[in-house]
Request: fold
Amino acid sequence: MPECRPSAFAATRWTLVLESGSETPRARAALRELCDIYYAPVVSFVRRWRQDGDEDAARDQAHAFFESVLTNEKFGEPDPRRGRFRNYLLGAVKHFLLEQQRLAATEKRGGRAEHERLEDGIHAGPGTDASAFDRAWALALIGRALGDLESEMSAVGKAEQFAVLEPWLDGNAEAPQAQAAEILGLSGTAIKVVIHRLRERFRAKVRAEVAATLHDPAELDAELRHLVAALVGAGSG
Amino acid sequence: MGVKTEIDSENVCKTCGAIIPAGAPGGLCPACILVGSQQAAGVVGAPPLEQIAAAFPELEVLGLVGRGGMGAVYHARQPKLDRDLALKVLLPDLGADPAFEERFSREARALAKLNHPNIVGVYDFGERDGLFYLTMEFVDGVNLRQAMEAGRFTPEQAVAVIPGICDALQEAHGRGILHRDIKPENILLDRDGKVKIVDFGIARMIGDGAHDFTLTQSGAVIGSRQYMAPEQLEGSSSIDQRADIYSLGVVFYEMLTGELPIGRFRPPSEKSATTKYIDEVVMRSLEKELERRFQTVGEVKTQVETAASMRAGVAARPAAKERKSTPGEVAGVAKMTLWVTGLILLAPVLAGMALAVRAPGREAWVIVLFWAGVVSALVGYVGSWLALHAMQRSEISLAGRTWLRLIAIALPVVGVAALASIWASHEFRDFGKGSVFLTMIAAAVPTYLIASALAKAAGLAVVSWSARQWAWRGIALLMVATGIFAGSRDGHWPLDHSKLRGLIKLPSLGEHELGPAIEKAAGERLGDYQIRSTGDQVAITVLHETRSASVGRAPFEQLVKDWSRRVEPGNQGESVGDHVRAFKQRLLDALPAEAIVNAKLQYLFMRGSAKDELICFGLLAALAAAAMGVMGFPSGLCGICAMVFAYGVMLFVPARAYPADGPQLVRGPALGELEPEPIVADFSTPAAAARTYVEAMSRVDLGLIERAVAAEEFERMTKYFDPLQPGIRAEVSGFEGGRVLAVEPSRNRSGGERANPGVSMTVRMVSRDGSRLPEFQGWFSESPDGTWKLATKP
Reply:
């Protein structure tokens, strides 16, 4: 792995991709990285789309999709729709799946007629609405930030601190800290300080991950709000 | 990744209520994380680091540490002095106010004079590149807001923080500086738990007087409003240190409960594991009326420390390490408590076993058992104190401490009082005393428990500490006074005198005014001897006949008790019977001629008033217990123990002196030679026959007895007789030296003659050593020397 500090990329990934196109190696690496992170939401989206419960086929299709993104897409043109990587990816994967479906249908019928009616009577599986994708997106994002934090803490020898204090990272203030303080050998006040600092670090990483998927940093708050809404509005998976 | 595994079932986040999806990393709530990340984004608005670094070339600006409504705080290093400092930069637009600079300098200079370990010190201030700044002591920690968000404060932790804040405020107030903006964001905690207050007087720098913060300013300012005292919000011109006290109260409340005290808020003890003493402090700090609030911060600190010491040991040390609990302790009872309780409970078991075995020879193992019980109790008791001491020093877990306190304090008090009463009862042969004590316990303890439970349920728990103290003192005083009076009356106050008076105040029956006569006989002649009995009870009944058909009964109730079994010098040979005869004599003298009196006067003082006494003392005890129940444990329970113990002492101490100097129930002239009066036999009326018979019995005039028994009217009269006829000497073989306690006249057999001369008597005897023997009925015949001997057993 060329760089073990992906957070250096963080603020620039999608921006980099959009501005440099997929021509430069750095941009390609950035795009690959983004696809890596958000692999899971795409896979589950494809799985739900297919409805046939075939795990492997879904994964293959997802792979194919990412391949097509990495090889075919040209990002050179500024496009307001592409301000957020998430939106872009969702649109791209939908397009891809519909296209695949259409091709399969046409092949069955024989011949390769070009039809432009993408949304035509094609059934998508349940849960293929945007909010399900966004939820999976948020989880992937957080997972990435958490992993980042863990490696960072291990690198400075505080792996135990991370392991013990992980449950408090989401802002949970009610769980009793006495035992955790005991394990880490800290006083009741010191542990509050440590938790606060860890949380701040984690939140910074989350923000950084979100920012990495945006072109305009001013959209950070809006994107966060959108993701929160998708999570909170969750009635069913 | 995370330690937690994925959960498939529905998992709801406790903080935001959203469902935590399966597959959420670390099991953490993603919604909360993202919301938290939103708030963390605060760099907008603060001057960028480069600008700051450029403005302060002599400092190494390390980073932004916080942002508030007034400006931003940076962590910086001063290489020249090799120290860390906090650089606070005020919002640029504040400088637009021309008077600002003057205010700023004035306040900063005043602040720089504040030098206290709990106040963040000010090093320097000034203006650079249009930015007004302060350099301050750098605190490596978090502010109270961040600490509260990191984890809920336990009451002990919250209480530990307050004294430091009070010290800081005291220092500032002493120099005439008010903070005016006490809130969690301005209270810093370093890693050691030390408290440091920051932003003193900033409010005055920014604005003028109390109109510092309005709703038109930034959102952070509105937060300050929630901590502001009412007089501050109203814009009153005279704000003093009590405004800071109010803000402190709000912070305290928030630390304890996690909420702000708005509207009609519940006291902290109802929302967290806080004591009522802490409640007091918080509620008084939050008083809307200035006069009712704490007047100085020093008062707050004292109250808090007093309140904290009510939970001895833990609050004294901020951030004390809690010892890890084992499952037994987590269940609420420490091992020590279990041991102590076990040892103490073992003691009565062993002692009981020992006593239950009434081995005639006092075998060794019985003695061993008994003493083992004593040792067990002592060890358990000492252990309870050791355990409490260890808890005080946080050496062992605090579980079960309340129970231990109960054992350590209440047990000896109640135990000693109980033992004293038992001993006194036995010694003075007055089990009434013991029963008073037991009645009080029986009345007090359940009443206390019920009262305290009801008070808690009714929400009466919040009674002010000072009121409680005064009430308790008053009750204690009342109890002691009652005890002293009771003691001086041999425990019979407040009843004996009234009873005595009441007893003698007899209504006139018919035309015969017996009251004055008896009163005269009983009360008038006060001599220098006492009536004592060496028996148990003396029954004296007065009967009289009215003109009406039925014979009225005018009970004259008194009881002569056995106070001492020791024969007093000078009283050799006297018996109660002699005294009673003398008394009867006086009475007969005093009565009008036409009154027909049964020479037996029966009085039952003690039984009646003993019952009333018990009721009276029981009620007193219940009343005190109810009052204490409302006031709350542990003062209540301790109060009851103290009260009961005081009574135990008071009641028994005078009793020792009683036989010699105590009040006398009946006094009369010195007993001289009593000539037995010849009995006038009168069998004309049933009453007369009865009287004659009784006289005969008392003199053991056999012939007269027979004649009385034979009289027609006798049968009707028997029901008026009490079988007690002390004084008769009888001898029963095998019970030498015994004394007849009672004689029951034999039933009149209808017709027939008796085979043997003599009198059938039911005899209760007491032997010389005082042990009572079962009664038996026998046929006694008179022997030449005047004693009655058992002839045959029928």
User: Anything to note?
Assistant: Chain A touches chain B through 52 residues (CB under 8 Å).
